[in-house]
Each structure stands twice: as structure tokens, then as C-alpha cells.
Amino acid sequence: MGLKICAFVLMLGLRFSVCEACQPSGCGGVCDSIPEKGQYYIPEMKKKPVKYWTCTGVISVGNRNSVNETEPTQGLQYHLMCQSLAGLTNRAVEEGKSEVAVWLYDHGEKASYKLSKQALEDMNIREHGVRNGLDLACKNYKQADGVKPQLKDLFDGYVLTDVRNNPESGIVASVASHVYNSIIVDVRDREYYEKAGYVLKYDATRKTTLDAWREFKNKCSNDALVLMPVQTGELREFAIKNNLFVLNLNKRQGSPCSGQNTALLDEVLAWLKPNAPVYGWEQGVGEDQFVARISRSGHPMIPCDWSYNHSLTALLYTERQQPVLAKVIDPQLIDYSKKRNYVSFFLSDGDNIQWMMQDFASRYYNVPEAGKVKMGYGLPVSTLAMMAPVQLGNLINQQERSCSILEMLGGGYYYVDTYSQNNNRSANLKIAAGRLSSHMRRYNVRLLAVMAMDVKSPAAKEAYQAYVDANDHLEGIIAVQYSPYAGGKGDIFWFTNKAGYDIPVITVKYSIWDRTHKREGSPAFVASRLKENAQDESFSAVCVHAWSRFEEGTYGAAAAWQCAERLDEGFEVVSMQELVWRLRMRRQPGQTRKYLETVEK
Q1: Closest Cα to residue 211, out of 250, 171, 163, 256?
Q2: Best CA proximity match to 154, nearest among 95, 106, 113
Q3: Peptide bond into 300 cis (omega under 30)
Q4: Torsion-angle region of residue 552: left (phi > 0), alpha (psi -120 to 50) or beta?
Q5: CATH of the structural domain 327-597, one choice from 3.20.20.490, 3.30.360.10, 1.10.10.10, 3.40.50.150
Q6: What pTM, to 2 d.p., does this model score?
Q7: 40-74 pLDDT, tens per residue?
């Protein structure tokens, strides 16, 4: 679609957005920023440090969550200490008590973290030095360049854990750390830290997560929640810096039969502010044990259990939205006269923040098969824009022009038909849709992928209408069912936006997945089913399960290509955006032509 440039174009690097005045045509223009309408809701570090320490030996160490290590710079004991050190230090910066932050270093850092770290340098925040956590916690450092780099004076003492004998003590300590302004120390290392001058402020060795809730509920922010397994250290920096409660579902690592905090989870979810995000993940249980509960309570789940440094990757994110627009096709250039069995492939699991921060781009996104099949890629546009804006800009910049970008799952992971069914659903659904709309318009993302327990249910249709009502820039919705993903059987529903245009909701017809189901299977299986059901003209959305492997270890776009190669001349593989426009022209030719006449050429 030809770009119409609005009057108030901003210089590169400043905030911009898709112009409100250009709706409903969705011109993709660039103009002054979209007004604040509550779309920024992820905790944000608003105070810029002058310098930062790089803390080593944490992230890439394979035993970082092991409880059986004996060295003081190894295992979960060290990991929790470093996470608490970083969280408290970064909170001290926010409170004006320090000018030096802490960055947890991943040896051989992924490109996304290098970019986010470089962004600190671009903001004139300089690295002061590289040290391990023991040195940063215990050694003295002289003032340099007018900045006091010493950290241990920022802390009041230590919180004691016994992660080997009481797994929940690490969870309790993650909350007590921000309450008592104290680093986390395990019984294994207690003597070392006491020799360095630390004093005990809270003993968590025999405490449970329920104890932490009873003692510290009133000292925690209900803006968000961190949900993580007991035997992990990830996300503790983020939780501590933002005074969040931390909760585990399984009381022992990956062992539901050892007891769960299910009732406590329900209580905490009810305590959170409406639509407050839940960060992390749980292991060893089905999603119905936690994502479904979180969804019903009216909260989006943000899968990010293996990501790091979010206080600093999200630093001043409201001011650092990236000057990039997703590439879109010009629907005026489509030859609508021909008829084919049109097929479009898109990749699952694009809501996963940690995946976006790790190997998504190198292994799934920048691959030669992507352009061949005009692959659709779901990205967590709205959440990544807040948690790591520079990485979102990086991914959009790398977009293959023939591939479509979709906002994946609507601002986190939840089921649109159950969202907030326990509490004020209509109002909360409207808020979620409004937040999402602002981010999609800013980055010129025209397609939305959502997930529902039943994509055909009245509740799902209520949600589709809410998204359409909130965003006249939206061109189409792809609906995935949990589970099977293809439970909608390719059915298509229509919803009218406020400008009077009909917007399609296309359910997944088949899934490429390494399991057997009548609508899910290998690339060859899906190709055979498509050919069996060929017509004069048809429109099929095919979801490619990201974690499935097929012939010769292929996955992602390569698996889609294996399917596409098996289709005959009666088929044509198109981008998801083209599929939507062809469908709109087929269903509403007069209306669609009228719409296209309003688009600037």
C-alpha cells in the first residue's frame, strides 16, 4: 500500500506512530506520537543511570539453577544472589540512591542483548567495569568520574535461603529481598558474606510461598506478578526492582504431585490490578493449570522465563519506541481476477519474549525458505515494544518484504474466549483491545493472531468484535484454537469495524505438527489434505508448529516449503496479508474496491 506521509514527520530516532487522522484507510503514515491511552503498562525503569557494572558468570552457565554446586560462584545459590544484587541496585538508581546499575552478562551474548546493551551506550550510559557477583557484593570501589561505584553500601543485609532442603525458600527470598533491601544468600555461602560485613535481615530457610504472601502482600506492588518454578533464578532482578510478588505453582521442581499453590495463585490473581501482566512460566504442568487460570482472571501471561535484564532492556521505553514500520503489501496491485486455492503459512509461538531475545531471528526468521513461502511471522509486538524496544525495531527491520508480520496473541498469552470471565469481562476486554491497537498502529502491523479455547464460541466472537472495534487499522484476524490449533477447520467469520468495513476472522484449517490428528500432521500430510479439499477457489491458513521437526530435521519455514512443494498448479502460496485481501475482495467486492479507492497511491 502506498505510503502517505503525514504533515508532522519526525526526525529519525524520535517517537512516531501511524497517524490517527489517517484512519480508517490505515495509510501507514508517520506523524506525531499516538496519545497515551494506557498502552504502556509494563513496569518501566524511568531513571537513567550514569554507569553500569557488568556482572559475569550467571546467565550462560549451564549449572546456574543447580542446587548441588559447592563453589560460591556456581549454581542457583550464586544465581539468586546476583539477581538480587542487580534488582536492588537498579531499584536504588530508580530511587535516586545510586547512579550505577547492574547488567547480568551472557558470555557470547545474543544479538538482542548486544543491541540492548549498545542502546545503553547510545544513551551515554557507560560500562564502569566487569566483575563477578562476589566482587560486586563484597569489595570496596573508589569513586571515579564523579560516580560512586560501590554497591555493598546500598544493601541493608542479607536474606537467608536453603534451596537444597527447602525449594520454596528461594521464592520467599525473592520477595523478602525487596522488602528488606537485602541480597539473597544461601546457607552454603553464609559465612563468606558475613565475613564481608553482611548481617541477617530475614530467615527464609523454613518459609513457604504461602508464608511470603501472608507476611509481604501489603508490601508488594499489584501492577504485575512473576510466576516461576522454584528451582530458578530468572526474572528475580525484574521482580525485586519492581517490588513484585513471586509465586511458584509446583512446590517442588517439575513435580505437581509434591503439592501446588493453586488456591494461592487464584488469590494472588484476584489481588492484581485488572489486566496486570504475569511474567514467566511454570514447568512440568499443562497450560490449563496456570495460563487458563490467568486468562480467566483477566491477566495476560508473558512467556519470558529464560530472558534477562528487563529493567535495563526496558529502560525509558515510553521514550524509546523505534522509528520503524512493518512492511505491508499494496492491495491495489493484487490481480483479483484469477482464482486459485490460496494457502498461507504462519509460524506459531510468536508471543514468546525469550525466543525473540534468543535464536528466533537466526534460526526461524532470516532463512531462505521464508521468502519462498511468504511466511507469516507472529511477533509479540505490543509486549516486546515495552520490554525490549530496540529488539522489536531490529526484528521489524529484518522483515523479508514478501513475509507478513502479525501481532501474536494480543499482548501476551491468553484465550480470548475466557479472558476475564471471572471479573468484568466486557470492560477488561475493551482495555486489552485498546492497548493492543495503539501498539499495532504505531508499528504498522495490520494482522492479529489470537488463541481461543473454542474459536467458534459466542465468547470468542465477542472478543473478535472488541479487537475490530478498537482498531480500524486492522485488516484481518487469524484464530488459533487450543487445542488442536486447527479446531476451527478453516471456518471464516466476519465483523464490521467502526468505519463500516467487514473484517475477516480466519480460523486455522490445518497445522503442520509432528503429531497425528485429522487436521494436524507432517508437511506431506497437510499437502495431501489440502489437495483432497481443493475447489475452484479457497482460502486456507496453515499454522506451522514452531517446535516440531520433520524430514532431515526441517522446521519452521523449511517445513512449510516441504508442504508447498507438494501442491499442484491449482494452488498458490500467498502471504497472510494477501490472503486476507483476496478474501475480502471475494466476500465484499464493492466495499473492498471502495476502500481501495480511498488509499493514496
Answers
A1: 171
A2: 95
A3: no
A4: left
A5: 3.20.20.490
A6: 0.94
A7: 999 999 999 999 999 998 877 789 999 999 999 99
